[in-house]
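User: what does the whole thing look like in 3D?
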Amino acid sequence: MLNIKELLDKVKASPYREIVVRAPHTGVVEFAGLKQGDTVRGPGGDYKEKPGTLLAHLTREKNRKPIMAPEKGEVEVIHSRHEGQFVEAGEPLMTIKHYLTRKEVIELILQEALYLFRAPERAKYYFVPEVDQKLKVSGKRSVKVHEGMEFLIVSRMKRETPLAYSGPEGIIYSVYFGRGENVDEGEPLIGVCPEDQLTVIQDVVARIQSEWEEQE
Amino acid sequence: MDAEKRIQALKDRLTYISDIFAGRESDSIRLLSAKFGELQDRHGSRPGGATGEELARLEDLFDFSERKLDTTLTPMDKVRIVRHPQRICLKDILENVYDNYTEIGGRGEYNIDPSMLIARAVFSRRVGEKVIDQMVMVIGQEKGHGEAFRNGGSVKPWGNAKALHYMKVAETENIPVHTFVFTPGAYPLEDWPGAAQQIARNLYEMAGLRVPVIAVFSEGGSGGAEAVGLADRRIMLSHGYYSVISPEGAAAIEGGLTPGVRAAPSLVEKCARQLCITADDNLQNGYVDRVLQEPPLGARPHHYDFFRELRRELVQTTNETVSEVKPMKLYRAMLVRASKSDDAESIFMRWTLSRSGLGRLVDTRQRKYRAMSRHARKDGTGIFSRAVAAVKGSVWATHSFVRYDLLGRQKKRLDAMFEELGAEAHLVRHKLLMPLKKGVDRIMPGNSVERARAGEAVKDRLTRLSCPEDGACLVGSEWAWISPRSQEDRTISCPNVRTHHCPDLWVPDLFGDFAGVCPSCGHHFPMEYRWYLENVFDYKMSKEFNQQLESINPLGYEKFDLKLDKAKEKTGLKSACITFETTIEDVTATVAVFCAPFRGGSVGAAEGEKFIRAAERAGRKRQPFIAYVHGTAGIRIQEGVNGVIQMPRCTIAVRRYIDNGGLYLVLYDTNSYAGPVASFLGCSPYQFAVQSSNIGFAGPGVIAETTGMPVPPDYHRAYHALQRGHIHGIWDRREVRKNLHQSLLTMGGRNLYYR
Amino acid sequence: MDSANLGRHKVLIANRGEIAMRVMHACRRLGLDFVCVTTREDLHSGHVRLARELGGDQAVYTITSYLDANELFSVADASRATAVHPGYGFFAEDFRFARRVVRRDRPLEFIGPSWWVIRDLGDKINTKRIARSLGVPTVPGSDRPVYSEMEADEIAASLFEFQATQGISDGVIMVKASAGGGGMGIEEVGGFEAFRSVFRRIRNYAKRNFGDEGVLIEQRIFDFNHLEVQVVGERGGKKHVHFGTRNCSVQSTGKQKRIEVAPGFAPGVVPYTFDAARVLDEITRHSLAMAQETRYDNVGTWEWIITPRGEPFLMEVNTRIQVENGVSAVISRVNGGPVDILAEQIRLALGGSLDYGQPDIAFDGVGIEYRLVAENTDNRFTPCAGTITRFGWREHDWLDVYTQVPTDVPYEIPMEYDPNLALAIVWGADLAQAKERGLQFLGELVLEGDVAGTSGAFHTNVGFLKDKTGRLLEF
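Assistant: Here's the predicted 3D structure for the full assembly of 1446 residues, as structure tokens:
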């Protein structure tokens, strides 16, 4: 059985996630004048139409592009030695300390509580059409998986092969991959919950909902 | 009347007064409030309460002060009057002006749109011995003295659709329509039937509605007003307003404010004054026919005399409208026109019209609007050219008639006959000769030398260069005009980068080869209108006309002359509209272009007139008529009602053109909003949009302000307009010419010169 | 060769893998500075390692994608590069890229033909028309997009009739979308009755997918051999030489070349039903004539198909350096010395002059190029991902191996790019010796790997290459 209290305490001990903001491509960096300890906002608005806090500008081929904070948090590190310099793609520019939201904590703890079926290799994954259809129409938690059931398609280098499930029988509770995204080997693809534990899991979610206070 | 009630009535009057003047201090108001306070004290402290005498004295003082205050009303005060919950509303009019009525199309809250009220109403009149009932269809916005579900008289698209439906019912039943305009503006929803498109549909139908229509304006808020306002006669209440935009809206634009920020009251006052929105302004400009005097500080439900006046006015105006087009000019007709007194009711006249009478009615209505707003534009064309143009116009019309109707029809008939004959002959020949040929083939089988030679010829055909005159390299995608932006070595990001991961675009490629289209996601970056002029409409080879029609500042709007001059200098245009005749492949068409760089492509009196003349010219020459909307922000607010009136004017021109069997096609690009979409553009049966354009009634900021709800960022995108049924297709910029040509061949009415 | 005045140049190598490595070596040979790019996924590729060895850390820049031109120009400016080598694939035949290289505010030299040459010859229809205007043979059929059904009917009928006169009883024609490519929107028709519906289908397909309903109609040619002519020209496009022919008929099911042999036929060694020497001569002559006419100004390949009756038809022109340039180089001698076509490409593109003529070029022996690919040849050549665990071969003076795969550490094949592992070029004095040495190389080769930890699922095409070696150059 899961020790939810222990899990929650573990998360509470370090309720942060560090987000490394990297240069999305090459170019010359100008920081937006933030200091260590400043708070930043992620995109907001009903349609995420309001951009997050401006962190820096990156200019490449005379196109000056803003880099915005992806999530709410606090500036931890600024690599200010890059100011006015050319950087390569993927160069770390800043680190933001992001206080976990309720939703993220739920996902984090669910990853502990659920059986995670992991990617056998780095590839793109899709549900087989029947499963895809059912997930779309009836939502997650409508599909039951069992040992040997071919439920995913692995797409790697234009080659598509079916992938069978292995693990305890249960329903698909969470899906961790997006359509057309590369998933690294060993990353979780889906979280499965045995049917008899569904209520336990739902309790977990309810507890976090009430116990976790989001930081403003 | 009991004292309590009289005191309450006085209290209401006092509140009303201070509301109207928005806390502005004046001796009269101070006096009234002091006196009323004293009275109230006395009433409370004395056992018998205030005496009737005291009350009467105070009532007289109120009457006197109201008269005095009435002379000091500013335009903004009048705006506050019509918005006040104590203002008369349509229900009051139905109860007090008509003798009997039944509400239809919903009742109270149980209504598809409670802000649009429809009623069948009756005037009962005694003529000699008999009592005669005269039926009318009453249509108008209901503000319901501030009832929340009435939405302040702001009508949703389906409310306007309901109004249109009952106008058509009135047409079927041949009874006059009385419309009442009590709206601050239409509710900006894009859901079917769409705020803009439904107003456009209403205007289009009213432009040719075959019954008399009398409109009464109390609160005429722009597009919402036009939805029921296109009438044979327009009466305006003296304390009403009729405007292109709310003074607050104008102030927000003037002050360059972001949505949600309120403009300073002084700026709002100034805008209200500058927009010329009062009854007198509109009468002077010729946009209403008559002003009906209201009691001091505006009509409220207890002003029974006023209702009597309104009734008299309505009867007389309806009489006038009908008598003007009756076939026989009777004695009564003369009387109707002469009478300015109460005895209008004593003259009885049937309000049903004959077919020919209705035809004249519609024609008169159309001419009436055609003649409006002449003062609000400048025609730089010399007198001589104008005379030539006039003569040419009638020559074209005659020419078209002779060529396409008189001769053309005969020729077509002959052609058809020859075609038939030809086909007949071919069949006969075939039937006769085939057996013969087969016989010959049987006797003399193909000789092999000949076959080899034929093989060589075939091989030659299949392997030598075809059409060598085109050169070895077939050069495609070379544009006749390329944006000057393509000269700059820099890159820009596609707005869809988040969803489509488009790489940054090199500007010279993007605005050169790609014609401003992102090659990975198909997003269309806005393109200069010149691109379309040269690459689609072959502007260099076209014949432009009415170039000298010029936008002016008819209201003397502050600082607007300067802005207008700047726009003219920047664009080299005299107005936002370019009209010309051009040839697309093999079809000659008339084109009106609305250019966004000239004051946002806004439509004022000059643009409207150019558009109308283009429609008329296309009609006379039997050409298709294309409106390419490079962009329009709406009606030019600085022209006030001179701008708004272009909505009915242009719609009427379009209606006449379409009724005569033309092809009117609208193509939207970049951003098209508000008035023009809600009238002469939105009424087209063939509307298309260039990809990535936005089409709508009100911009996102205005919607958020009006409805209190933010709209999704892509709310106005063309594909949503397509989904909602507002437009009929989305075109790739690079294929506009091809698609236009295809449309010219497959769409439109019977009276095109090439048909 | 006048490499002295090339020294001021610094070449940005806008490619990856084996071609990037060959370009680096060529730059070194010419005494040129270079800078190379890589991506996060490709950091372990041999080209990155080699670049660091030859040029130090500052010779490698990490970018997001080889396909983002902006990244390349950004690096070019940051590294002060003065020329761009596009390699093959990616931007090699993108005339807009080539045009941007020379038209940007800080222009660079483009190592390849001028952009207008790429534009004109990059279009198959234009190529066909240019060829026809010069009397160069092309596949019978239309040479412009056909829009009208009547015209299409006429061409189709002629094609069937023509094939009948040629003695082809059941002729087939191809209907393809003129704006298409990569095998999309192509259909074969075996008879005139079926033609009209196919034409309409393709036309509608083309309209829906490419926005242009133009259709091409051509004879379908069966059992042909795929030959090419290697042409080299100097800037200005006035002087050209050729480095012989290649036969690239051994291909995967996806029409990907697997073995190339130079020269293209072996007349006198292998029996042919037609005069093979004359055909080779003819296609070389036509290719040079076309290069002259189009002012072709760098290296390029004229691709031909030869029918079983020995008729050559020009297919297309590849306006770039090709993978298989080495197999032509290995049999060519300039004034008796060896030649590096890649180095020649760079030298000529940077303004060097072609200081030798065709008479100075001689050919010696036979070259075979094998492409080692991780793929399952039994299952439609599906690419195989995984990790190379062992890779090695025995060195010979008749063997060159080009690879980005390290031989000393395991290497995970990045799935973002095509799964080519290595090229091996074998030289022999004659066809028999070349074949024998080829088989010897393949026999000595060690190439092992695993997929997700198991070696059973790992496939290479080595067996396929061995099988095909026996009948090389036979029609």
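In plain terms: Chain B has 27 helices and 20 strands. Chain B has four domains: 3-72, 83-305, 484-526, 529-746.
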